[in-house]
Design brief:
Helix 13 packs antiparallel against helix 16 and helix 15 packs antiparallel against helix 16. The N and C termini lie far apart (about 70 Å). The chain is mainly α.
Length: about 325
């Protein structure tokens, strides 16, 4: 039998005291050790990389518009310039070729919103028809839609140019609006939504009540599809607003250009990028301010529609 000084007595007492603790509890020493355990550094690292690659460039762009060209090159890149420099850059930008900057913004708004209306009027009913009806060639049509959706936009510019030129629309606003309105990704999104998230029982009940197929779509399916309509509209608007190559090829006159191509014109007039610039030289802070003006409409649309965007993205996640 172990004596008082034997090591077995100490071990026995320790085990007895531990066994006397309430169920579900642990010794204080173990709790303290768990509290001292370092956390996972991966989330902080990912957040830091996100800030470096996404937040800092945008912050630099905002601050660049408040500086002179000398401050932009030699000053602190993340320091605020001055309100006076911002006003001078604004005056210089708005006086460039008259009101060219505002003309480009108006053109972008006209092309993007006109094409958006046509896209919604075509893509949503087309997605509904593909999801709800069976006809010969339906599968091939879906495959063709998916293939065209995955093709880069640059590969379609030459065929589109030949088609638009055949109907003598080169140089008109329709040479931009009609190709913009061709949006297979919107058809695909609408098809996915109507196939997975729309309750078929409601549609059958409307048909039993005497609704035609157009009435079922207009009175039942379309009101329930508001999230996907907002999602298709947002993606279409962003794609139209940021398109550069198509209007660059289709539009010959500066007064017809959208803002993305206009930014390219401004870039050509920056002396540091084009030493042959004459009297219409554009400084780099003015170019930064023009870039901010070009992205502001997309940001505003996103802020007002983000609630519908999240709902639309999750609409087809589960089958009803």
């Amino acid at each position: 039998m172990p004596t008082e000084g034997h090591p077995g007595v100490s071990t026995f007492r320790t085990r007895t005291e531990t066994a006397g603790l309430p169920a579900g509890s642990a010794p204080r020493r173990s709790v303290a050790a768990r509290r001292r355990k370092p956390g996972n550094p991966l989330p902080a690292l990912v957040l830091g990389l996100f800030v470096v690659f996404f937040v800092l460039p945008v912050l630099w762009l905002v601050l660049a518009a408040t500086k002179t060209d000398d401050q932009l090159v030699h000053g602190n890149p993340l320091a605020f310039g001055s309100w006076h420099a911002l006003r001078a850059n604004w005056d210089a930008l708005t006086s460039y070729q008259g009101d060219a900057m505002f003309q480009w913004l108006r053109n972008s708004a006209l092309y993007s919103f006109a094409a958006l209306v046509i896209t919604l009027a075509v893509a949503i009913p087309a997605g509904y028809a593909l999801a709800m009806t069976e006809f010969r060639g339906r599968r091939m049509l879906l495959i063709a839609t998916l293939v065209v959706m995955l093709m880069p936009n640059a590969t379609l510019v030459v065929p589109l140019f030949l088609e638009v030129n055949a109907v003598h629309l080169i140089g008109s606003m329709w040479s931009i609006i009609l190709p913009y309105a061709f949006y297979p990704f919107g058809v695909y999104l609408a098809n996915i939504y109507f196939s997975t998230a729309l309750p078929r029982e409601l549609l059958e009940a409307a048909r039993l009540d005497g609704c035609s197929e157009i009435g079922v779509f207009r009175r039942v399916a379309l009101p329930l599809a508001a999230p996907i309509v907002a999602l298709v509209g947002f993606f279409s608007f962003v794609a139209n607003w940021t398109n550069y190559f198509l209007p660059y090829v289709m539009l010959p006159q500066s007064s017809q250009l959208p803002v993305q191509v206009g930014l390219g014109t401004l870039l050509d007039d920056v002396p540091q990028f084009n030493p042959t610039v004459g009297d219409l030289a554009v400084q780099r802070p003015e170019l930064a301010l023009a870039t901010l003006l070009a992205i502001t409409p997309v940001l505003i649309v996103f802020l007002f529609s983000q609630r519908f965007l999240v709902t639309g993205m999750l609409a087809g996640a589960t089958k009803s």
